Amino acid sequence: MTLFTSGLTSFLATLGFAVIFNIPRRHLITASLNGALGWMLYTLIMQLGGTTIIANFAGAVTVGLIGELLANHFRKPATIFIIPGIIPFVPGYGIFYTMESIMLQNFTEAVSKGSESFMIAVAIASGLIVSSTLGKYVRTYARRRKTS
Amino acid sequence: MERYEINELLLFASLAGRVLLENGAETYRAESTVEHILSSRGVSNVQAFVIPTAIFLSIEYENELYSHIERNKRIGIDLMRITRVNELSREFSASDMTVAEAKIKLNDIKKSSQYNLWTRLLFAGVGSSFFTLMYNGGLIEFGGAMIASVITTAVTEFLFALDASLFMRNIFGGVVAAAASIAFSVLCVLLGIQVDMNIIIIGAIMTMVPGVAITNAVRDSISGDYVSGMSRTSEAIVISVALVLGVAVTLNAARLLLGGLMP
Question: Does the distance separating the beta carbons of A93 and B219 come in below 8 Å?
């Protein structure tokens, strides 16, 4: 898949979920663009031969940082840009597939898919924590400069 | 403040926290919002312990301790309500709004919704069908996933309105998703069109799979909220077990009944 089509499909996929998650109407497009940008970076890293974990981590950091910036700009909680943004990454189907493998007594598959899904979740979560911590530091720094 | 005023404040703060939890806010956000609301009214020693299924609060005022426990059973995701509770808590702390006024606003938020059912169903279809493209599906799978997902979301929304439990919602969601995908695929086979049923099923269940739940679980654990992390992990496991049960049972039944017609 080319970078452009992956951006477009993830944009529309994110947009669908943004409506289900009830994002305020005026932020629908920005939140979906956030998801698309993150997913394009993911696709790029995968095409350059990176591993899934690195690609997910980098994607999540991007989504998180853009989310923090948007949150600061619009004075809204960052969650409304981040939750839809990570939708293309989250290992929802991976967890489902793991359970399905356990049920079909395909235990090797379950362990491999299960650990992969868990590590993806860890990568995304740490990416988000890194970006929110960075965002917090930048905000306090900016505030301190303004007051002094 | 009188004793009853303290109680009102405590009830309001825990209700605000509960609205946040019900709509899928992170644990730290619920905790900090509740603490923020309470601290702004001059009570001391504010302690808030939040897990996805309950809120435990305790405050001190004029050498007396007050506490309250609020249970929470419903969990969905509604980011509009989270935003509005966030704004309300900021407004409440910055002004001298009375607790009664704030409570009226909070009850408004609790009932608010922004998009009507048809819009939500349509966009559930859009979200799921574009996911099939990300999983390398073709146009046939795209259309099938859109139809299946709209039907599935209609059923799960109906069950959510009926206050059905998480497990029941996802079992029925899985059954309906699989049944709709099978019906579509069998129709395609009868018309002589090549179709990949598995990708359609993936699309149809995409709105239910616990991707955000598992990510939030890890996020809570990394931030040190271990109980919340475990609680959300269990939620993710329950959701996926229910979904798999629903899908697998339906697939098996269809194989027995339809046999050769299945793609």
Answer: no
Walk along chain B (263 residues) in steps of 10 and give the mean pLDDT of each run: 88 94 91 92 91 94 92 87 93 89 91 87 93 88 94 93 90 96 92 90 92 92 93 93 94 87 74
The domain spans of chain A are: 3-147
Q: Is B134 on the interface with A (CB under 8 A)?
A: yes
Return the H-helix or E-strand segment holding B54.
strand B54-61
Q: What percent of chain B has pLDDT over 90?
A: 72
How much is the ipTM here? Answer: 0.90
Q: Helix, strand, or coil here: A118? A: helix
Q: Which of residues 63-102 of A touch B (CB under 8 A)?
A: 76-77, 79-80, 83-84, 86-88, 90-93, 95-96, 98-100
Mean pLDDT of A121-133: 94
Residue B259: both structure tokens together: 């046999």
Interhelix angle B117-134/B139-161, rounded to 10 degrees, is 140
What's residue A92's pLDDT? 87
- Collect all residues of chain B within an 8 Å Cβ-Cβ radius of residue A95: 209-211, 214, 236, 240
What is the per-residue pLDDT across A23-81, written as a single tens digit (0 to 9) for each?
998 999 999 999 999 999 999 999 999 899 999 999 999 999 999 999 989 988 899 99
Report the C-alpha gap between B58 and B55 in whole angstroms: 10
Alpha-carbon distance values, B185 to A73, A96, B122, B146 (Å):
47, 21, 21, 13
Judge: B215–A121 Cβ closer than 8 Å, yes or no: yes
Q: How far is residue B109's CA from residue A41's CA, in Å, rounded to a whole number?
A: 36
The answer to whether A14 touches A84, Cβ cutoff 8 Å, is yes
Q: Which residues of A touch B113 (CB under 8 A)?
A: 22
Q: Which of residues 156-175 of B touch A (CB under 8 A)?
A: none
Q: Looking at beta carbons, which residues of chain A come within 8 Å of B241?
A: 99
Give the side-chain half-sphere CA count within 13 A for A42: 30
- The pTM (predicted TM-score) of the whole model is 0.90
**Chain A residues with beta carbon closer than 8 angstroms to that of B24:** 83
